[in-house]
Specification:
Elements (H helix, E strand, L loop, with lengths): L4 H7 L11 E6 L3 E7 L19 H20 L7 E13 L8 E12 L2 E10 L2 E14 L1
Antiparallel strand pairs: 1-2, 2-4, 3-6, 4-5, 5-6
Length: 146
């Protein structure tokens, strides 16, 4: 199942400059998602991180992975933010960064659902560029009413 940015905005409450998923390439409801973030030199964070050596902040790579997981969670629950539900990023374990992400990279975001109990979801997430792992983690998200 592919999703363009218009449909992604139905499932994520984020907006520019904080929407970090540009397209969903694959989505198996209840199982996994593959999405992409095109990293442009025009990203607002590159103005200060770092002007002479632009590197995407690691925390934003984690956020991009969490947003992909959020889409998977919302699709799995058959909910949207407009239904009064919000998906909070609440934790990360085994977080690793392997290499920098720079302008021109296409960040491939993968998330696989590991478990769900009482509104707390656990996902295995990975970000890669050209097949090389950039970052990986196990993250937790919480589904809550707005």
């Amino acid at each position: 199942m592919m999703m363009d940015v218009r449909e992604i905005r139905e499932y994520l409450p984020h907006r520019y400059p904080f929407l970090l998923v540009d397209r969903v390439l694959e989505l198996e409801v209840g199982e996994s998602i593959v999405a992409i973030k095109n990293v442009s030199v025009n990203e607002p964070f590159f103005t200060g991180h770092f002007p002479d050596h632009p590197v995407m902040p690691g925390v934003l790579i984690v956020e991009a992975m969490a947003q992909a997981a959020g889409i998977l969670g919302f699709k799995t629950m058959d909910k949207k933010p407009q239904d009064g539900s919000i998906y909070y990023f609440v934790g990360a374990d085994d977080l690793r960064f392997k290499r920098p992400v720079v302008p021109g990279d296409q960040l491939r975001l993968e998330a696989r659902k590991l478990s769900e109990r009482r509104g707390i979801w656990k996902f295995a997430v990975r970000a890669s560029v050209d097949g090389d792992t950039v970052s990986s983690a196990t993250i937790l998200c919480a589904d809550r009413k707005v």
